[in-house]
Design a protein that fits this description.
This protein is an alpha+beta fold. It contains nine helices and eleven strands. A hairpin with a 4-residue loop joins strand 2 and strand 3.
């Protein structure tokens, strides 16, 4: 368990180490301590703080869960990384490359492994998305964060999904199924660079956007995934063909062999054809 490998931090030394605020949420603020650590500080030792500490203790050490170094009376000293959504936005305008596609697959598999571990410990994340994933080790390792609103055992989640990641269900409680549906949206955003339907309803007022997206999801209407590398896995998450994250992980690992190689070969072939066409055109011009 993470708590056995962590220690309580002196309040005074932590206060002196606090640097700039990195993020502010509904119940806590995140401060930079150094290049490797942040302090997630609550206004008091409230229920959200107690629940998140308990969940980190339950999850223990895992390659795809942010490390808990220790606690203060009202805060958690956690591993620092760069927000995945920020990285996706930064590269949104750049040309897609084969190396980017391979990195997407690595991130997807790591995120799936982390979420599978979370579920195996009786925890429902309840806010699956790139805003709750950080990248460490020069962006090669992906890790889940933010469990203050997650469900644990028979205690329902208090968090809510991003509006583009939530499909209305018969009950309002987050579950393994709602996490899996949201994971499909995560794969979509990793590949496309934006959340599902944000390109369609992004200019609408928030309440109208929520109504439109909920209506489409309720009717089983989803964004076009034809041509997407993750397409069939995304669809499996959205239609709940996958009953657990173990099945999602198997599907993703299946992409890492034949499908990935075929996609890369196809991409290289397209570039070769384009180069040959350009060369022929240039040759014809030179003969005139």
């Amino acid at each position: 368990m993470q708590s056995s490998d962590s220690c309580d931090f002196d309040e005074h030394s932590i206060a002196e180490a606090e640097k700039e605020i990195l993020a502010v949420g509904t119940s806590a603020a995140v401060y930079a301590l150094d290049e490797a650590r942040v302090l997630k500080k609550h206004p008091s030792a409230n229920e959200a703080f107690q629940r998140e500490k308990r969940i980190y203790d339950r999850l223990g050490q895992h390659d795809n869960i942010a490390r808990l170094f220790g606690t203060t009376s009202t805060g958690l000293v956690l591993e620092r990384g760069e927000c995945l959504r920020k990285v996706l936005l930064q590269r949104k305008e750049s040309r897609k490359s084969d190396s980017e596609m391979i990195l997407n697959l690595i991130w997807a598999i790591q995120a799936a492994e982390g979420l599978l571990h979370i579920h195996s410990r009786g925890v429902i994340h309840a806010d699956v998305g790139p805003h709750n994933l950080i990248l460490v080790d020069s962006k090669r390792q992906i890790k889940w964060v933010d469990f203050e609103g997650s469900g644990i055992d028979d205690e329902p989640a208090t968090a809510s999904y991003d509006i583009h990641y939530w499909r209305p269900t018969e009950g309002d409680d987050a579950s393994v199924n709602t996490d899996i549906f949201a994971f499909g949206c995560l794969l979509f955003e990793i590949e496309q660079g934006f959340p599902p339907y944000s390109d369609v309803f992004g200019d609408l007022p928030l309440h109208e956007r929520v109504m439109q997206i909920e209506r489409l999801y309720s009717q089983g209407q989803y964004p076009d995934i034809s041509g997407l590398f993750f397409g069939q896995v995304i669809l499996g998450c959205w239609t709940l063909r996958f009953q657990d994250m173990a099945q999602v992980l198997v599907a993703l690992r299946g992409l890492s062999s034949q499908s990935l190689w075929a996609t890369i070969v196809g991409s290289v072939w397209e570039r070769m054809v384009a180069m040959i066409s350009t060369t022929i055109s240039s040759f014809r011009i030179s003969l005139r």
